[in-house]
Amino acid sequence: MNSLSLFPGMKTLKLNSGHDIPIVGLGTWRAQPEETEKAVHTALEAGYKHIDTAFNYNTEESIGEVVKKWTKEGKTKREDLFITTKLPHVGNRPKDVGRYLQMSLERLQMNYVDLYLVHMPFSFLGNPETHAPLTNEDGTFRLDVDNDVIGTWAEMEKQVEQGKAKSIGLSNFNLEQIEKICLSCKIKPSVLQVEHHAYLQQPDLVERCKKLGIVVTAYSPLGSPGANQHFSSKYNYELEDFPDILGHPTVGNLSEKYGKTPGQILLRHITQKGIVVIPKSLNPKRIKDNIDIFDFELIDDDIRMMNDLDRGEKGRIFDFLFFKGVEKHPEYPFKQRLTVDGEKISQL
To answer: Are 204 and 275 in contact (CB under 8 A)?
Structure first.
């Protein structure tokens, strides 16, 4: 399952669907259209084959334009790329799966995606025109508490059968929710995409996914340095003591030891465990650096030092509590985030 193999120009992992997923991809969350186009162009020039997006990111159109240009000019073929997108939280119900995937395909100007993920286990009621979540007078998000995750997954399976998605998977689901899907599915999830970095390593979840034959993809593998500013400006929400993983002394020492950037140390630590990474960057040098991680390996002692940085739930950045009231949704996945070791982690 997780043995490394060769994709055109890239290391990959084998999915349970039979397809390969490149072990390094470009994340595109929180980027403007022109920025996205430049980043994707730089990534393709640097040898990336894997681009990650989502309906909610509003980057699908820009990615589609770049891929269209590259294929038209003969620089690449569609089948040599791996494109991931996601079902949004406002479309997380059986009747909306096909409709939202079709919208994503039209934005991307593609006939299929390589991987389609259910972005969140919870769902919101949305504006049918703007696809933005609806809110109540007190600012809380209007929850769709009747969403049917099993029914939604059955519709995800139909997208594979119709050839619109080669593989399907989950994002931000907890272990109980994943196993619930696995007990009822015809097509097992190929991928679980979750927050994963040195401060939030989730070894039990990763190990269980391996036993289930599910490849784990790490989003925010560098700790998402700009996330807190985004939380503050968009949601008026801030995390106290926002982590600086790139600046941790252990990471800095290993950076000096191996002659690699702190970001490359963090990414190599994850990929050596057979986990896919999708770092997001708009900086051309960092985009290139993030894929240049296969000419060295961390020795076992250094892996153990990096493992020791794990903070468990206290290291989580994306608890989604910036969606005011989301913790009241029955499928909110991080109930343990609310109390750890008897201490309140987030003030509700």
So the answer is: no
Those residues with Cβ within 8 angstroms of residue 248's Cβ, 6 or more apart along the chain or in another chain: 198, 309
Q: Go through 302-335 and write b for each residue having 16 or more CB atoms within 10 A of its CB, e for each that does not.
A: beebbeebeeebebbbbbbbbbbbbbebebbbbe
Bridge partners of residue 115, in order along the sequence: 84, 167
pLDDT for 348 equals 37
- The confidence score (pLDDT) of residue 99 equals 98
pLDDT of residue 8: 52
Residues of the chain where predicted confidence (pLDDT) is lower than 70: 1-9, 225-240, 339-348
Q: Which candidate in 57, 100, 219, 332 is catalytic?
A: 57
Identify the bridge partners of residue 124 per DSSP, sorted by sequence position. 143
- CB–CB of 73/127 below 8 Å? no
Which residues, 6 or more positions from 261, have their beta carbon under 8 angstroms from its beta carbon? 255, 286, 289
pLDDT, position 27: 97
Using DSSP bridges, classify how beta strands 10-14 and 5-7 pair: parallel, antiparallel or unpaired: antiparallel
Residues 6+ away with beta carbon under 8 Å from 240? none
Indicate if 116 belongs to the active site: no
CA distance linking residue 206 with residue 203, whole number of Å: 5
Only one residue has tokens 């690699």, namely 260
d(CA 102, CA 110): 10
Tell me the β-bridge partners of 280: 27
Measured distance CA(337)–CA(313) in Å, rounded: 6
Structure tokens at 15: 């999915």
How far are the Cα atoms of 3, 192, 205, 256, 319 from residue 210, in angstroms, in the given order?
Answer: 12, 10, 9, 32, 23
**Model confidence, pTM:** 0.93
Q: How many CA atoms lie within 13 A of 75 on its CB side?
A: 16
